Amino acid sequence: MRDRDLYAAILGVTSPWEVVDVDLDTPGQRVEVRLAVKSGTGQACPVCGKPSPGYDTRERRWRHLDTCQFQTVLVAQVPRVECNEHGVKQVHVPWAEEGSRFTAMFEALAIDWMREANLSAVTRLLRLSWDEVAGIQQRAVERGLARRERSVPRRMGVDETSFAKRHEYVTVISDQETGAVVSVADGRGRDTLDAFYKGLTADELSSIESVSMDMSAAYIGATVTHVPDAVRKICFDKFHVASHLGSAVDLVRRQEHRELAAWGDSTLTGTRYLWLTTPGNMTRAALERLETLRAESLRTAKAWFYKEWAMGLWHYVSRTWAKKAWGEWYQSAIHTNLEPIKQAARTVKRHLYGIINAIVLGITNAHAEGLNSGIQRIKAQARGFRNRTRFRNAIYFHFGQLDLYPTGISRSSAHTNS
Ligand SMILES: [Zn+2]
């Protein structure tokens, strides 16, 4: 088999395209495969499909899957046609999507790697620049979003997440049944969520059964305005209530630690995570340390007790019993001498309707927690995103459950020709 035929077979090049030359640069570890349209082949306008006269050709290059250890580049003289209606247009090539400098199979390989490894590993492994990797990811997300069917989550999750400098935010809207991210919108204000709801029809808005969120006035305001019967649908899930109470415990601890340290007492040194971790997730040693600390009459231990008490109030089925149990918690918490706990108790009381909704609708925190930690992970891997668009693309890429591959490539057939 001659090398041209070999490459035609490997690349799956079919008529009217043919391999006209193969250039092997051994010291450079590079192969250039030259392709051209067979002479005498009629061309059609890529927009309307009408046979059109040739105009000229332009040389274009695409990075392809490596051949053994050789970086492989396709080079083609791509015809342009002159259509009566659409003017001068470049014809489509079967191995790459329009505007890409990579073949579809190479993009599929990069997509697979991006799923498995962090972005800097992908740049290294595939010898690509950051911008090239980001470009492949962006095109993948654009394809996925364009192919996605319109659907509105019955059980919706809304959460804010920061990126780069900590005061920049996006709002992530997700489907709590499938776990898919539905939308990533700029900001975390009321107008951000308003804009999402405004894109929905009246029927779609009515089909929403629950909206799970943190106790943000902006998200509550937007949901009350747009979603019918929102007061029965807004849910403050356990994850967000826990993080709120955890902050109150931490305030008590910091203050008490300062006071103790002034007397040379280091009882609370290095205990931050002990008070914030769910006891069920602790090691035996941590649990024993916590028990010892709880035996001393620390204000932090008392604050922790109120947090853990509240965490035990999520199993109710009946609205009445749930309300009664949280009422007892509030009465006790509001009469402590711990100002941060009293503040938290007031916040809980004002938002009790949403806590009760979350309990009786069976909203679990698994989803919010999982998505949140997943987003934190990709953020850490990218060492912060300097660019909002790239952060948004990465969230859609990993959590959008999108069909990301270039046209004509499915998961099973991707780069089997390599
Ligand atoms: Zn045309």
Description:
The protein has 418 residues and is of the alpha/beta class. Among the domains are: 1-95, no CATH class; 238-360. It is 46% helix and 20% strand. It has helices spanning 3-11, 104-116, 119-126, 130-147, 190-198, 202-207, 217-226, 238-262, 272-276, 284-295, 299-311, 319-334, 339-350, 352-360, 366-381, 388-399; strands at 17-25, 30-37, 43-44, 51-52, 54-67, 70-83, 87-90, 155-163, 168-175, 181-186, 210-213, 234-236. The strands form 3 sheets. Strands 1, 2, 5, 6 and 7 form a 5-stranded mixed beta sheet that branches. The protein has a 5-stranded mixed beta sheet with strand order 10-9-8-11-12, sandwiched between helices. A hairpin with a 2-residue loop joins strand 5 and strand 6. The structure holds zinc ion (ZN). Zinc ion binds next to loops.
